Amino acid sequence: MPSRTKTVLIWIVTFFIMLIICMPGLWIILSAFRTNGEILTKPAIWIPQNLTLDNFRAIFGFGENVVGIPVASYFRNSLVISITSTALALLIGMTGGYAFARYSFPGKKPAFLWLMLSRTVPGIALSLPIFIIWSRLGIIDTKFGVILVFTAINVPFTVWLTEGFFRQVPNDLNEAAQIDGCTRWQAFWKIEFPLAKSGIASAGIFAFLTSWNEYALASQLTRSTDSKTLPVGLMDFTAQFTIDWAGMCAMAVIIIIPALILTFLVQKHLIAGLTFGGVKG
User: Fold this and answer.
1) Distances from the Cα of 44 to the Cαs of 30, 32, 159, in angstroms?
2) Distances (CA, A) of 273 to 73, 153, 201, 206
3) What tens digit of pLDDT does each residue of 161-189 get?
4) Residue 280 phi/psi, 5° resolution?
5) pLDDT tens string 103-153
6) Domains and CATH numbers, the chain
7) 3-state secondary structure of 107
8) Rounded to an integer, what distance in angstroms lies between the CA atom of residue 122 and that of residue 134?
């Protein structure tokens, strides 16, 4: 097969695969600008007939006899919870990753293996015991309780990712800096941290997106507008016998936009972090 034909076939196959992957997201975005009647029509209408912004107006309470969703409160809660849990996960995970990469201590391998295995447990499987413990501690329906859970979820992955990046940084650089008069902390902050910052940024991005999109655990731990996050707020569109699919899709678009903006702004660090150590000179 000629090289040009092979390249064209690869691009065509890749295009259709990406189209299949992106189809659910595209359908949600289109449905956010459609009416419930058009969404529920059978047979399905694939190409929207009448696009409208009424779903977004309804969410924010604009219009007659419309009760808005407290999007601002949900957004603020999501932002506070995601940023705080990400910062804590990075602090703990970076410390743990550095310790696993640089130091030898008894039980190092079993401890690292146990930490990685803990991440394989589905979060929803822990929802009942967490709910019982949090209830007895009195931190159900609080941002603090959700932050603790999200931090615990993100720490194992952060440790694993940062450990790999710190291991890639030659220890000779640290030793040379200390010979030149730097303390251990100064050598870390001035030498090792800048070299591993792409990996740390990648870990932070993944931790933030995990916290931002988490629904299962957040829905079990939050009840009021003071602690509900945006994904949990999607349930405000469900009633006993009906579901406002158009409103739910509009809310989903509002949830997606910040994540897309963040990914776009830090894509340079994300790509560098994911490929760090993958290419040897």
Assistant:
1) 13, 15, 46
2) 33, 21, 7, 11
3) 888 888 888 888 878 888 888 887 888 88
4) -100, 135
5) 888 888 888 888 888 888 887 888 889 999 999 999 999 999 999 999 999
6) 3-59 (no CATH), 71-267 (1.10.3720.10)
7) coil
8) 18
